[in-house]
Automatic annotation (TrEMBL):
Chief site of localization: cytoplasm
EC number: 1.13.11.53, 1.13.11.54
Similarity-based family: Belongs to the acireductone dioxygenase (ARD) family.
Name of this protein: Acireductone dioxygenase
Subunit relationships: Monomer.
Organism the protein comes from: Pyxicephalus adspersus (African bullfrog)
GO MF assignments: acireductone dioxygenase (Ni2+-requiring) activity; acireductone dioxygenase [iron(II)-requiring] activity; iron ion binding; nickel cation binding
Pfam families assigned to the protein according to its UniProt record, in alphabetical order: ARD (PF03079)
Membrane-protein topology: Peripheral membrane protein
Physiological role: Catalyzes 2 different reactions between oxygen and the acireductone 1,2-dihydroxy-3-keto-5-methylthiopentene (DHK-MTPene) depending upon the metal bound in the active site. Fe-containing acireductone dioxygenase (Fe-ARD) produces formate and 2-keto-4-methylthiobutyrate (KMTB), the alpha-ketoacid precursor of methionine in the methionine recycle pathway. Ni-containing acireductone dioxygenase (Ni-ARD) produces methylthiopropionate, carbon monoxide and formate, and does not lie on the methionine recycle pathway.
Required co-factors: Fe(2+); Ni(2+)
Cellular component terms per the entry's GO annotation: cytoplasm; nucleus; plasma membrane
Superkingdom field: Eukaryota
Length: 179
């Protein structure tokens, strides 16, 4: 399963771990209370993995594509990394499955503190619509990820503040129910 921890306030390179000192880990249960779910899958056999097929069927993930984030493969690499790292939300769930490499998803907790989620090969994460988050590579500077969608793909990020969207309102209501 993914590892997660509360982040420090450092302005140092976004690709570093940014663990608080002392470290404050975040459990999978704490992530689930925020609506964040994770899975460990067989990335070497993703095309024929029955567990991935079941997850796709159970959640109606009908569309997938693969993105490689590396300076040699992604046009406007530095600009894209800056965009991915802007705090934003989506109106639909965000589902990412790491096929190669590694990176970080950062999400906000109920007190608006950043939690860093380390993702590596075989990790899949689902972020609920309306959660503020961001993504960055780690110091390896490479990730190949499958993006999964319900229906047609939507990549539109809404940078914070975006509290007036129905997805944000529903997400906050979900947090209240889980409290």
């Amino acid at each position: 399963m993914v590892q997660a921890w509360y982040m420090d306030e450092s302005d140092e390179d976004q690709r570093k771990e940014h663990r608080l000192d002392p470290n404050q880990p975040v459990s999978p249960e704490e992530l689930q209370a925020l609506g964040v779910n994770s899975y460990k899958l067989d990335a070497d056999n993703y095309e024929s993995d029955p567990e991935l097929a079941k997850i796709r069927q159970d959640h109606n993930y009908t569309f997938t594509d693969i993105i490689t984030i590396h300076k040699d493969t992604l046009p406007n690499y530095e600009q894209k990394l800056k965009i991915f790292y802007e705090e934003h939300l989506h109106l639909d769930d965000e589902i990412r499955y790491i096929l190669e490499g590694s990176g970080y998803f950062d999400v906000r907790d109920k007190q608006d503190r950043w939690i860093r989620i380390a993702m590596q090969k075989g990790d899949m994460i689902t972020l609920p619509a309306g959660i503020y988050h961001r993504f960055t590579l780690d110091e390896n500077n490479y990730v190949k990820a499958m993006r999964l969608f319900v229906g047609e793909p939507v990549w539109t990020p809404y940078n914070r503040p975006a509290d007036d969207f129905e997805a944000r309102t529903k997400y906050l209501q979900l947090l209240e129910l889980k409290a």
